[in-house]
Write a structure and sequence with these properties.
It contains 3 helices and 4 strands. The strands form 2 sheets. The chain has a two-stranded parallel sheet. Strands 3-4 form a two-stranded antiparallel ribbon. Strand 1, helix 1 and strand 2 form a beta-alpha-beta unit.
């Protein structure tokens, strides 16, 4: 319903809760298409993969206050400690 008439601003609150993966991907494709046609889409979600798929900018809110705004990569670099994978060869015969 929110997409009827191609409005300039679309606000969605947790739009994919309860969707199966196939339906979720179809919905994402629709939102990407609408965004490419010039609409601004505001999505409230707790899923980072959904933000990565749909958003060019993200904001983190804590107690109704914006704490950080930026691109997905910026927020990951700022708040994620990252992971280090160490691979060692193992020869049980030595």
């Amino acid at each position: 319903m929110a997409l009827i008439g191609f409005p300039p601003l679309i606000i969605l609150d947790a739009p994919t809760i309860g969707m199966d993966l196939k339906s979720k991907r179809k919905f994402w494709n629709i939102i990407i298409t609408v965004r490419s046609m010039g609409s601004t889409v505001l999505v409230a979600t707790k899923y980072l993969n959904e933000c990565d798929a749909l958003c060019s900018q993200m904001a983190i809110m804590v107690n109704s206050e914006f704490r950080c705004i930026g691109s997905s990569q910026y927020l990951k670099n700022k708040f994620s400690p990252g992971y280090t994978l160490v691979i060692r060869s193992f020869n049980p015969l030595q």
